[in-house]
Automatic annotation (TrEMBL):
Residues 7-180 form the Chalcone isomerase domain. Belongs to the chalcone isomerase family. This is Chalcone-flavonone isomerase family protein. GO terms for molecular function: intramolecular lyase activity.
Length: 184
């Protein structure tokens, strides 16, 4: 009898689940003047630039549109893991943060993200809070307010965190757009 082994090499596929839109108050450029005349590519790799962007006291709004269906629980677990890891790295993961993060995860738990569903994150200019909203075809929008400043900061860092942000294309786009505004 002759036995043989067949090898199959499997490559990891990168699947796009969401498209991310970032909306910033135009006042943000006033807080980023030290990066005036820097190229987008330079800014893209400069985490201090994104740190300044995140902490700038201007309104920020993120619009996340679902491209490929995903369970809300899957999205919630990704968010939870990223936020918890960032909090732990800065030694800011205490009971209050755990409770606030758990509420966010529960908010997403029962949702099903159909194609074209929208998740929005609103970060007011003068408050360390966030409002997260979810809308899916024809259903009423559901919202949650996150009042733990540390959790809110790490959600911002998940999306806007420079080299550690969740989406390299979002970071590159932001860097190039802001570079153009800072060149004027």
């Amino acid at each position: 009898m002759n036995y043989s082994i067949t090898d199959i090499e499997i490559h990891f596929l990168q699947i796009k689940f969401t498209a991310i839109g970032v909306y910033l108050d135009s006042e943000v450029v006033k807080h980023l003047q030290q990066w005036k005349r820097k190229q987008g590519k330079e800014l893209e790799e400069d985490d201090d630039f994104f740190e300044a962007l995140i902490s700038a006291p201007v309104e920020k709004f993120l619009r996340v549109v679902v491209i490929k269906e995903i369970k809300g629980s899957q999205y919630g677990v990704q968010l939870e893991s990223a936020v918890r890891d960032r909090l732990a790295a800065e030694d800011k993961y205490e009971e209050e943060e755990e409770a606030a993060l758990e509420k966010v995860v529960e908010f997403f738990q029962s949702k099903y993200f159909k194609k074209d569903s929208v998740i929005t994150y609103h970060f007011p200019a003068t408050s360390p809070t966030a409002e997260i909203a979810f809308t899916s075809e024809g259903k009423e929008e559901s919202k949650i307010k996150v009042e733990n400043g540390n959790v809110v900061e790490m959600i911002k860092k998940w999306y806007l965190g420079g080299t550690r942000g969740v989406s390299a294309t979002t970071i590159a786009s932001l860097a190039n757009t802001l570079s153009a505004h800072l060149s004027n």
